[in-house]
Amino acid sequence: MDNPFSLNNFSRPKLEMPENEKKLLLHSCCAPCAGEIMEAVAASEIQTTVYFYNPNIHPKEEYEIRKDENKRFCDKLGFDFVDADYDKENWFERIKGLENEPERGKRCTQCFDMRFERSALYAHENGFKVYGTTLGISRWKNMEQINDSGNRAALRYEDIHYWDFNWRKKGGSSRMIEISKREEFYQQEYCGCVYSLRDTNKWRQENKKDRIIRGIKFYN
Ligand code: SF4
């Protein structure tokens, strides 16, 4: 039976943003997570700017690949793209003492807080009333943890709202993969920081799998 939520069959609903806003600042972590969300907001005629602020990504070459892939899709859809700072020194400073936390733990809360605080600030300074993030579409992430950080950052400004839409619902997660394959996005194999690279490789070693070779795997 055909999947009613796959790209060929799914009729995209008209999305409503908080406060009935039509303009969105979308913090994006990478092209694979952003693809489905970008197509959904485009179909709802939400005027969207993609904000790429991810100083957590290590090393720089990996950061550049993820950024370029995201920009490539922005160009294709005609979205504005903001290439924000790669202020990795501040990121390392922020997570000091949390290097050995597990994924979804306290280090990740700080990592989300830092990225969303900057996103909310950019929204506040540039005429956006609503911001959101692509991070929550990934099943590897704790959506409650992400939404808590997103709301916390928005609360710093009276005029900013965080859009906590659940992008995984109604086949969003599977369309995310469909779009990634169709667009042949780069397929990263770890969350992003040097500690997630370390821990993923450790897990692979323990499970007799090959170590990650960065920069070679693309969806196809
Ligand atoms: S595992 Fe991912 S979310 Fe957590 S600190 Fe590292 S890059 Fe950030």
From TrEMBL:
Q: Which UniProt keywords apply?
A: 4Fe-4S, Disulfide bond, Iron, Iron-sulfur, Metal-binding, Oxidoreductase, Queuosine biosynthesis, Redox-active center, tRNA processing
Under catalytic activity, the entry for this protein gives:
epoxyqueuosine(34) in tRNA + AH2 = queuosine(34) in tRNA + A + H2O
Domain of life of the source: Bacteria
Per the UniProt entry, the Enzyme Commission number(s) are: 1.17.99.6
Example GO molecular function: epoxyqueuosine reductase activity
What are the recorded Gene Ontology BP terms?
tRNA queuosine(34) biosynthetic process
The UniProt annotation places [4Fe-4S] cluster binding at C29, C30, C108, C111
Q: Name one Pfam family in it.
A: QueH
Q: What pathway does this protein act in?
A: tRNA modification; tRNA-queuosine biosynthesis
What InterPro entries has UniProt attached to this entry? QueH
Cystine connections: C191-C193
Q: Indicate the family of this protein.
A: Belongs to the QueH family.
- Cited function: Catalyzes the conversion of epoxyqueuosine (oQ) to queuosine (Q), which is a hypermodified base found in the wobble positions of tRNA(Asp), tRNA(Asn), tRNA(His) and tRNA(Tyr).
Protein name, per record: Epoxyqueuosine reductase QueH
Organism taxonomic ancestry: Bacteria, Pseudomonadati, Pseudomonadota, Gammaproteobacteria, SAR86 cluster
| Gene giving rise to this polypeptide | queH
